[in-house]
Each structure stands twice: as structure tokens, then as C-alpha cells.
Design a protein that fits this description.
The protein has helices at residues 2-6, 26-40, 56-67, 84-95, 104-120, 137-142, 145-153, and strands at 45-47, 72-77, 124-129, 156-160. The protein is of the alpha/beta class. The protein has a single domain (22-160), classed as Rossmann fold. The model is unreliable at 145-162 (pLDDT under 50).
Length: 162
């Protein structure tokens, strides 16, 4: 019905968020600019909150497509309800890091070395967690005092959606 009436080539109301159908209103441009600024300038944690259905995930997908250049590596965790090792493995794989071991300490050392190498080259790495409010207590503890400082110091940008 919509396709014929509006002369569209594809269905505009799919199940998954599609940045092609984002109506870029001035306030959305500002949100994207703030998120991109926070990541590119290595400001640490960046939080995006809003009511259900307001387009946060669509904005994140738009942000991801604009960041995926050689200087910003991104990992987009769209389901944070994972066990710690699974979360680390998913994140590392999405960054393009070949996981050499499923031992937590080895995974953290490998990730840390990768982040240090990228930082030395002036590159940025951004971990983006959709639905971050659903992180388990174990995952929150994993990003506790020491790790949070290490993550922030390694210039992760995190867009947190709710």
C-alpha cells in the first residue's frame, strides 16, 4: 500500500531499524554530531537515552555507517545479555580481532594489546552497546573501577541506548 502510493522501491516499515528511512530532523543531526564528536575526540563514555520507539537504534546504525572509516574501529553489541566470555568474544570478533583463546585473562590481554596498538597509531576504537540497561550484574562488575578506567583510558566511545 505505502510503496504504490508514495512510489517507494522498498517497504519503509520493516522489523529492523533501517537508517535509509531516517528523517534527519535538526535535533537528530545534533544527536548524531554529539555522538560522533564524543567518539572521535575520545571523550570516554557517551550515553544516548530515550523512550522506546524513538529511533535510538536507527541513529546508532546511522552513526556506525558514518564512523566506519580506517581511523575508527567499532564493535556494536546489540544483545548485551551474554555471559562475560561470550561478550568479550563477540566484541573482539566484531572489532575484527581473531580470538586466540577462550581464557578470560588471555582475551583481555589480547584486547588490551590491540587497543594500545591502535592508540599508538592515532586510531580510535568504539564499543557501542545497544540496550545497555540490560547488562547483567556480572558484566557491570567486569567494567568496574579498574576496567572502567582502563577502557576509558583506551579511548573507547560507548553509545548506550535505552
Amino acid at each position: 500500500m505505502y510503496r504504490a502510493f508514495f512510489g517507494l522501491q522498498t517497504h519503509p516499515f520493516g522489523v529492523n531499524p533501517d537508517p535509509r528511512f531516517l528523517c534527519m530532523l535538526p535535533h537528530l543531526k545534533e544527536v548524531l554530531a554529539c555522538l560522533a564528536y564524543g567518539i572521535r575526540r575520545r571523550k570516554g563514555f557517551v550515553v544516548l537515552t530515550g523512550e522506546v520507539g524513538t529511533g535510538k537504534t536507527t541513529l546508532i546504525k546511522t552513526l556506525l555507517s558514518s564512523l566506519n572509516s580506517g581511523d575508527v574501529a567499532t564493535s556494536f553489541v546489540f544483545n548485551p545479555q551474554l555471559e562475560v566470555l561470550d561478550f568479550l568474544e563477540f566484541m573482539m570478533a566484531d572489532f575484527g580481532i581473531e580470538v586466540r583463546s577462550r581464557i578470560k585473562s588471555q582475551m583481555l590481554l589480547q584486547l588490551n594489546q590491540w587497543l594500545i596498538n591502535r592508540h599508538r597509531l592515532g586510531m580510535t576504537s568504539a564499543l557501542i552497546i545497544d540496550e545497555a540497561q540490560d547488562l547483567s550484574l556480572a558484566m557491570l562488575e567486569e567494567s568496574g573501577d579498574g576496567n572502567r578506567k582502563a577502557v576509558a583510558n583506551r579511548t573507547f566511545g560507548a553509545a548506550r541506548t535505552r
